[in-house]
Write a sequence for this structure.
């Protein structure tokens, strides 16, 4: 609820209301209960909980299926009849329904439904134009943590990668504009390589020029994106109504 603190300041609580209540440590779901998670579909159109559960259940719980319950505002409670498959739903996304993103969250018993945030999503990102010596786990985690939170770096058993790009799975805050790439500072300038020159002052006030390599990103399975602001979840035409 919005403005609860402001509302309480205007109220005079009775002696009974001021007592409050303290919950014990018991309660909650039993140990035998099927695990649950909450998902939010980023869509202007309402969706059916049963259709969502049937569609996603084919991937998440292909043997025993998935139960879905509508919680309002395109939020849904999912009950996993195969407990071992919860991790797939939570971390192997991004997941789409009719080309629209669905964000999964574990249930936080300390929060209300309206206090839950649905803004962090895992995406595979291809990092292009990296030198061969930087195609490794260390570089992937360093860059991934600049984008968001690095989860997985796709490398060989020896910790290195080969090819045109390095793949990193990153948890991204989709309420912020997507990064288009990253600058990698080069200590030695190589002939035939294009660089970005950035002029700045050093500690003594002298002008120095730092040389950077631009490494563009390519996002895999990217849903609807606003090309005006770079944020996922709405398209540019929505500005016509703002």
């Amino acid at each position: 609820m919005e403005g609860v603190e402001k509302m309480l300041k205007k109220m005079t609580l009775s002696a009974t209301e001021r007592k409050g209540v303290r919950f014990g440590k018991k309660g909650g779901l039993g140990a035998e209960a099927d695990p649950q998670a909450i998902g939010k579909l980023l869509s202007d159109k309402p969706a059916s909980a049963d259709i969502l559960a049937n569609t996603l259940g084919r991937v998440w719980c292909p043997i025993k299926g998935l139960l879905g319950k509508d919680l309002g505002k395109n939020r849904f409670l999912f009950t996993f009849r195969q407990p071992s498959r919860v991790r797939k739903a939570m971390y192997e996304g991004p997941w789409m329904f009719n080309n629209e993103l669905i964000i999964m969250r574990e249930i936080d018993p300390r929060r209300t439904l309206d206090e839950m945030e649905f803004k962090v999503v895992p995406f595979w990102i291809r990092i292009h134009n990296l030198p061969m010596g930087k195609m490794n786990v260390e570089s992937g985690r360093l860059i991934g943590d600049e984008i968001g939170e690095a989860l997985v770096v796709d490398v060989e058993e020896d910790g290195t990668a080969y090819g045109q790009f390095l793949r990193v799975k990153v948890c991204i805050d989709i309420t912020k504009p997507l990064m288009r790439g990253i600058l990698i500072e080069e200590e030695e300038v190589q002939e035939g390589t294009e660089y970005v020159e950035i002029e700045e002052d050093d500690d003594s006030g002298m002008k120095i020029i730092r040389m950077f390599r631009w490494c563009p990103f390519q996002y895999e399975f990217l849903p609807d994106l606003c090309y005006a602001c770079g944020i996922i979840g709405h398209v540019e035409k929505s500005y016509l109504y703002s």
